[in-house]
Every structure is written in structure tokens, then in C-alpha cells.
């Protein structure tokens, strides 16, 4: 799967993709992540990518031309399944959307900044608008990194133990059961005996009951 992320702050996206699972997915050739500097597509001699809003008001608005130039160049090279715009007024990302996106080949993600982007970019190019939650961040870069992370780890072959993505919280509508590792006794705080029993069917049942209880307590909406 290939991601092309268009941003005015490419430096903000260097670290999130250079570690752990995302780094491994790229090394294995399962995911390609390309970050494009929007300023490289500005025709303006000062490399401006924003301008004052028509009708007045505070804040700057990102212009259509640089986005259009970058998107047109990418589209001339390959077909894109989705062009996603990260925005707090988009549909809230969830595991189901991440699953859907993980089946795609090529995706462009647009990161907004300043007050927002010219509505015509949204009308003419964008196929999906995603939010990562009901709060406002200073730009779409961190939300884009979250989408890429949530999606890439679901692509077959990325996680070494493929079942571990399936047992994640949310994947089967239940939160995860509690996890423990050594030592079995830390200052008198013991790991539940069942987990040391070696009785796999009983352990599975315990995990399911714990997951159900945790979901009832914390996210009853998931059980509706
Ligand atoms: N840009 C700014 N805030 C955002 C959010 N909550 N989700 C997606 N993009 C954003």
C-alpha cells in the first residue's frame, strides 16, 4: 500500500514513520510512505501556499493551486483509491474505517493548516474527510500519522504475529483483557492464578469474561 501525504510541514512527519512497525513495514516493502512539501508546488515566487479569506475574517486559508498541482502530478503517475482530507469536521476514525482503508492500494492524505483550506479543494479532489476526535489540533499532520499507523499495522505481513491485530481492543467490538508478564509476584501483587495454570481453554474463557466486563464498564456503547 502506498501513502502520499501532502503537507507544509514535512519535518513533522519524519519521526512517526521512522520507527517500529511503520519502519519495518516500509523495509519489508509492504508500505510506501511519501511525504510531499506543498511549498514545492507553489507557483508564487515567495512559495506562499495561503492567502486571506474572501469575505474577511481572521486567519489564512490554504490556496487551491499548490494542492491541485501536487495532486495532478501524483494522479498522472498512478490511480488513487482515495484522497483523504484530515479535518476536525470529518467522520471520526474508527477501527472499521482503518480496516476498510487497509484493503486499498494508493491513498493521498491532505494536511490542512492555518484557518483551513479553500472549499474547492474539498469539493473537487477529496473523496473522504476524516477526524481523529472532537478536539482541534494545529494541523492535519499528526492526524495523518495516526491514520497511517492504524491502517498499516492491519496489512497482512506487517505484524509478525498476525493474530495480534485481530485480538486488539475494538477489532472484535470488545476491549482487550488485562495483560501480565514476569514477575508472577511483584511485592505481593500476584498475576491471576488462571494465567499460570497452562489450561488454555480456561485462560481463553477468563480473557473473554474480562474483556466483556471491561467493555461493559468502560464502553457499554460498543455492546449495543
Ligand atoms: N486537524 C485539526 N484537528 C484535527 C482533528 N481532530 N482531526 C483531524 N484533523 C485535524
Question: Short summary of the structure?
Answer:
The chain has helices at residues 20-27, 64-77, 95-101, 119-124, 141-152, 163-166, 200-218, and strands at residues 2-7, 32-37, 50-51, 61-62, 82-92, 106-111, 116-117, 128-131, 185-186, 189-190. With 224 residues, it is of the alpha/beta class.
Task: Describe the overall structure.
The chain has 224 residues and is α/β, with parallel strands linked by helices. The chain has 2 domains: 2-152, 3-Layer(aba) Sandwich (Alpha/beta knot), CATH 3.40.1280.10; 169-223, Trp Operon Repressor, Chain A (Orthogonal Bundle). Helix content is 31%, strand content 19%. The chain is built from 7 helices and 10 strands. It has helices at residues 20-27, 64-77, 95-101, 119-124, 141-152, 163-166, 200-218, and strands at 2-7, 32-37, 50-51, 61-62, 82-92, 106-111, 116-117, 128-131, 185-186, 189-190. It binds adenine. The site of adenine has 11 residues, from strand 5.
Let me know the CATH homologous superfamily of the largest domain.
SPOUT methyltransferase, trefoil knot domain
Please, what is the average pLDDT?
A: 96
Structural shape: elongated
Order of helices and strands: EHEEEHEHEEHEHHEEH
Bound molecules: adenine
Low-pLDDT regions: none
What is the count of distinct domains? 2
Q: Level of helix content?
A: 25-40%
- The radius of gyration is 22 Å
Amino acid at each position: 500500500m502506498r501513502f502520499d501525504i501532502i503537507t507544509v510541514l514535512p519535518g513533522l512527519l519524519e519521526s512517526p514513520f521512522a520507527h517500529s512497525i511503520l519502519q519495518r513495514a516500509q523495509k519489508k516493502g509492504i508500505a510506501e510512505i511519501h511525504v510531499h512539501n506543498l511549498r514545492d508546488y507553489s507557483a508564487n515566487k515567495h512559495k506562499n501556499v495561503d492567502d486571506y479569506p474572501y469575505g474577511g475574517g481572521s486567519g489564512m486559508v490554504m490556496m487551491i493551486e499548490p494542492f491541485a498541482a501536487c495532486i495532478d502530478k501524483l494522479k498522472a503517475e498512478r490511480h488513487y483509491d482515495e484522497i483523504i482530507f484530515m479535518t476536525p469536521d470529518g467522520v471520526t476514525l474508527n477501527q472499521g474505517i482503518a480496516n476498510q482503508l487497509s484493503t486499498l492500494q494508493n491513498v493521498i492524505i491532505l494536511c490542512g493548516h492555518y484557518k483551513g483550506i479553500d472549499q474547492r479543494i474539498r469539493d473537487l479532489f477529496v473523496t473522504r474527510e476524516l477526524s481523529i476526535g472532537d478536539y482541534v489540533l494545529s494541523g492535519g499532520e499528526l492526524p495523518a500519522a495516526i491514520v497511517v499507523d492504524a491502517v498499516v499495522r492491519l496489512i497482512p505481513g506487517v505484524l509478525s504475529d498476525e493474530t495480534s491485530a485481530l485480538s486488539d481492543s475494538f477489532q472484535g467490538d470488545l476491549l482487550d483483557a488485562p495483560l501480565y508478564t514476569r514477575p508472577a509476584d511483584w511485592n505481593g501483587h500476584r498475576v491471576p492464578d488462571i494465567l499460570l495454570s497452562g489450561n488454555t481453554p480456561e485462560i481463553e474463557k477468563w480473557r473473554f469474561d474480562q474483556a466483556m466486563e471491561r467493555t461493559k464498564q468502560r464502553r457499554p456503547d460498543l455492546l449495543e
